[in-house]
Each structure stands twice: as structure tokens, then as C-alpha cells.
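User: Here's a structure from my thesis project, written as C-alpha cells. My advisor, Dr. K., wants to see whether a designed sequence matches the one we expressed. Can you design one independently, without my sequence as a hint?
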């Protein structure tokens, strides 16, 4: 297996308004994206990768002159890798509202000539999927070989099967859920409150004040990071190890290595992520609930899906537990859909979908090998 090598982001501007689920619309917008591999002659080998909360269009490869710039799924996507770019044309699109290039709160609102800030409209998973479909239209891709995503990306993959059931052949939904539990919504709300109560937040218009609500962002990241890891992993990596040789008997200074780790992760996050984006994306997570329009009946919601499915969960993922994936599987089986389900016994918690578990990667590789065999010109 080799790396894709250096890649270059592209951007596509849209002048036609994008209607949003909230009733608002974006008058015009830009989407940033990357592509890997080669689109085949009949444009049938395209795979869309949907990103999770703090990721972006930069799925694989590196940026020239930028150290440690590997894409967030570089271990999964590339030549000879489970999602093989020698066989598939892979597309990563940065979602609207993000802080990584696509139109979001940091960009200028054409109606005011100032950054959107808190005035950027609330966006949903369904809005992102609609925008993604428009970009694919421009690329001349009528039907996708597959849509794949983990966590919030998995929600987008599921939504694709409902919004555009005829435009995709396979859905790969990893470490995801058909909606957020009350506990998950609660975690998101605590994180949002940490941000909006930061004195530097200024009602979301902190750009005009030349400040960033870093304190709130740090706390939000700490909360999120704790939920992405399993208790076993935290115990193995840190246990009760002290930062110094002995207790300092302080209520405010760092005493334990786990505290140091969380603060380090929080500091990094607050340097590159936008607070308004964090609010928008966690709200999109909260709102996703396709069964909600069908009286809570997920099987009825999934009845329109026509794709074949691979659903993967991880045993120690308590944020998006295997039970939630099994809900998806049951709803699909109730509709007699073609479903492959893998529950991986992995110790890493929710973050497992980003890591190098060989059993997980073997399942993804086998599934995409099967998809490759369906492509025109594939060896019998």
C-alpha cells in the first residue's frame, strides 16, 4: 500500500440559492472538495466520503510543504488500501458551515458585507446531502458506486439513501446511529453552553471584536474527547498516572496525566476550529432523525432506500453503541434490504472508526472489492 501523495483542494461556486430545511436559504455558496483516483469512462466508480464533526474534505494524501498533513482517513483511502483509489474515484466534500473552506460563519454575508457569524443559517444533514448532490451534478456523476461515512458522516450516508435512493448503489455507515440519544444531545448542549457563555463569544460575532472564545472551545473539546474514547483505552493509556512525581495538593493545577492530555487536545482544537461551526455541526447532529417524520418508525423511514448496505459498529463505542447500529440493520431487514453487518470487538471507543484495526479494515476492503466486481469491465 502506498500513499496517494500530494493533493490539492478544489472549490466550486454555486450562484443558485440552496433551500434549507429551516426555511432559510443560502443565496450563493462555495464548496471545497478533493478527489483521488480516476473516474472511469462510464462514471460508475465514484465513491463519496462524508466527514464527521471536526474533519473536512481532506480525506487522504498530504499537502506539499505542510508537515503532518495526512488526510483524516488516509489509513483507509488510497492505492491498495481498503477503499482503493486504483479502482475507485473518491470524492471528499467540505460541508457548509464548516471552517475549512466551504461557505460558513467566517465568510462574508453578501447581504451585509460582514462575516456571517451567528447569522449563518442553521444547516442539517439533509442540507449537506442536497449540496453534495449539486456538486456531483457539476462533476457529471449521476450515480455513485457508494457513499461512506463514520459517525456524523454515517448519518449523511444514511440520508443519501433516503433523499436520493436511485443515485447510489451502496451505503457504508460506520459507528453511527439513526438519531442521537438524549444523553448525546445532552453532551452537545453542555459543550455549546461552554462556548456561548465564554465572555469572548459576543453572541457569535466575535470576529468583529478580534477575539476567539477559546476557553469555551477548549471545554467543548474536552467533553467531546472524553466521549470518543473508551474507559479501557483511557485506563490503559493514562490510568492514575501523575504528571509530577508526587501530588501537588492543588485544585487548579494539573495533577494527573489524563488532565494534561485533555488540555493539550483542547489547546490544539481551539487554535484551528471555529466556535460558530462547532455550534452548527452539533445542532445538525441533534436534528438528524429520519424516523421522526414517520411517527418514530425507522422501518417506514428506510422503506424508500434502494441501496445495499454495510453497517459497522464497535463494541466499546458508547457514544454510538452497537445497539444503535442494530436498529438500522433491523429497519433495513424489515424492508428486505441487502445488509451486511459487522460488530468489531475493539477497545478504542468511538474513535475506532478512524484507527487501524485490521479486522475493521478487512471488512471494508472485502466489501469494496465486492463493489469493484460490479463495475463495468471488472474481471469475472
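Assistant: Designed independently from the structure alone:
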Amino acid at each position: 500500500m502506498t500513499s496517494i501523495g500530494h493533493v490539492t483542494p478544489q472549490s466550486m461556486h454555486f450562484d443558485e440559492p440552496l433551500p434549507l430545511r429551516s426555511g432559510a436559504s443560502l443565496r450563493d455558496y462555495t464548496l471545497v472538495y478533493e478527489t483521488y483516483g480516476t473516474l472511469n469512462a462510464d462514471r460508475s466508480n465514484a465513491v463519496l466520503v462524508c466527514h464527521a464533526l471536526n474533519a473536512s474534505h481532506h480525506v487522504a494524501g498530504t499537502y506539499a510543504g505542510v508537515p503532518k498533513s495526512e488526510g483524516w482517513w488516509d489509513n483507509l483511502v488510497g492505492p491498495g488500501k481498503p477503499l482503493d483509489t486504483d479502482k475507485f474515484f473518491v470524492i471528499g466534500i467540505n460541508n457548509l458551515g464548516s471552517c475549512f473552506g466551504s461557505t460558513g460563519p467566517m465568510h462574508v454575508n453578501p447581504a451585509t458585507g460582514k462575516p456571517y457569524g451567528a447569522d449563518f443559517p442553521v444547516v442539517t444533514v439533509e442540507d449537506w446531502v442536497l449540496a453534495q448532490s449539486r456538486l456531483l451534478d457539476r462533476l457529471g456523476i449521476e450515480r455513485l458506486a457508494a457513499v461512506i461515512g463514520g459517525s456524523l458522516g454515517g448519518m449523511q450516508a444514511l440520508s443519501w439513501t433516503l433523499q436520493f435512493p436511485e443515485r447510489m448503489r451502496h451505503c457504508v455507515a460506520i459507528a453511527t446511529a439513526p438519531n442521537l440519544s438524549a444523553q448525546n444531545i445532552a453532551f452537545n448542549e453542555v459543550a455549546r453552553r461552554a462556548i456561548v457563555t465564554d465572555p469572548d463569544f459576543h453572541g457569535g460575532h466575535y470576529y468583529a471584536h478580534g477575539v476567539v472564545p477559546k476557553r469555551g472551545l477548549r471545554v467543548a473539546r474536552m467533553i467531546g474527547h472524553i466521549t470518543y474514547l473508551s474507559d479501557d483505552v483511557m485506563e490503559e493509556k493514562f490510568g492514575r498516572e501523575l504528571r509530577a512525581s508526587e501530588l501537588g495538593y492543588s485544585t487548579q493545577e494539573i495533577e494527573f496525566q489524563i488532565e494534561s492530555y485533555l488540555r493539550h487536545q483542547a489547546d490544539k482544537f481551539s487554535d484551528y476550529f471555529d466556535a460558530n461551526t462547532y455550534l452548527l455541526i452539533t445542532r445538525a447532529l441533534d436534528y438528524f432523525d429520519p424516523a421522526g417524520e414517520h411517527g418514530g418508525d425507522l422501518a417506514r423511514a428506510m422503506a424508500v432506500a434502494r441501496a445495499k448496505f454495510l453497517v459497522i459498529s464497535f463494541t466499546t463505542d458508547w457514544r454510538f453503541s452497537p445497539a444503535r447500529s442494530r436498529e438500522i440493520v433491523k429497519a433495513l431487514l424489515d424492508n428486505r434490504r441487502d445488509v451486511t453487518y459487522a460488530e468489531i470487538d475493539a477497545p478504542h471507543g468511538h474513535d475506532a472508526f478512524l484507527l487501524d484495526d485490521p479486522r475493521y479494515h478487512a471488512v471494508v476492503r472485502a466489501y469494496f472489492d465486492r463493489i469493484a466486481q460490479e463495475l463495468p469491465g471488472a474481471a469475472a
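When you compare it with your expressed construct, this may help: The first strand starts at residue 10 and ends at 14.
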